[in-house]
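Researcher: Next entry in the queue.
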Amino acid sequence: MKTLFDPDHALTRGLAAIRLKYQVPADFPPAVLAAAEQAAARTPVEHADRTALPFVTLDPATSTDLDQAFHIERAGGDILLYYAIADVAWFVEDGGLLDQEAWARGTTLYLPDGKAGLYPRSLSEGAASLLPAGPRPAVIFTVRVAPDGAVRLEAAERALIQSRAKLAYDRVQPADLPEPFADLARRIQAAEARRGAVRVDPPEQQVVHVPDDGYALAFRPRLASEDDNAALSLACNLAVADALLAHQTGLFRVMPAPSPGAVQRLRHTARAFRLDWPHSMPLKEFERSLSANNPVEAAFMLAIRRAGQGASYAPFTPDETPWHAAMAATYAHATAPLRRLADRYVVRAALAIANGQPVPPVVAEAFAKLPPVMARADQLAGRIDRSVIDLAEAVMLHGREGEAFPAIVTDATEGGIRVQLRELPIVANLKTRGPSPGDKLQLTLTTADTARGTIAFAPA
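Model: Structure for this entry, 460 residues:
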């Protein structure tokens, strides 16, 4: 998640410290850069010519590492989604320098002032990215979407595609998109609701300058085009996951439901935000009522994301059904191979299965090795995200030391208590005993250190 946007560079020094602390790589070793340049010059020879299909991409306006392009057609009452995924495996040789570096990194790391890519830019933002600059090698997944939103992987092939347009979330118009685009998204979203799925997609947080009053944390409104585009990726990932499971192989994204204790903590947080969550209403039902474009509800969506045990990766295991509680389905990651190492192998497995071929041994072996690698990468990304948010909170509160803030206790911790501020989307830990979950407190801000990205409170 790109947690923050910092156009005024209020976080520059603190971000440099975060990069140093977590050893975020500034670039690639020269040998890896050279290998990427050599790979980028590789001519596709195993790809069908599908350049006549009018593919387009839809992403943030500034994105240049484009994993996905799409074309959509109607087929009677069904909809056919032709989802082209960057064919990263065409460029990356198993065991080569690019492959070794990708296994060391695991994922692209995002910070407000830039990113540390999984692959060098000559690939991720050049030859492998599905930009409209010229034909690009891709794996096209053909996904059939029924009127009720059920999905099925019908075909997969390596192909050359030509994107017709690089569309942006904040500027796209309905006329720019294939006619069935909105209908497909509605079908997928309706199927989610029937399954009881709840995807928590809070908007990005931003640090904004407030004239004469320092900085504040705000939320960038989430656009309908983002949600509709996410439905395409979801459809493909669900269809791929079902195909992998049916052939008893694969790597799946799994996540348990929030524990009862986590739900209780969220109820205290909802009270802090003055949200009306009826006691008899389950968390899933309450989540579906939240709007990412309401700042208070968006902050609570972030709290929900933090409260869960998090998703992880699991290879196929006989007699076990991999399950993702938020999706309420078996789910896999296949649509972002430029940014996630695991997706490259899932794409290769699905391509083989769809064409009646055995999964390559190197792919099957990778499924067993990838979970700890991806867990380490996800944990690092999570720590960086948390540090960036801490830094933003310190920037926002700097100069307000001594002020009182109303809060509510959400949890008792080993060293004290955890509290949620009632007026701001900020969680803090206090080394104090006595207050219980649900208690209201007045806190005094004692520290807002922008150099270290830390804040501290004391009971007023």
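Model: Residues 251 and 363 are 10 Å apart (CA to CA).
Researcher: Noted, moving on.
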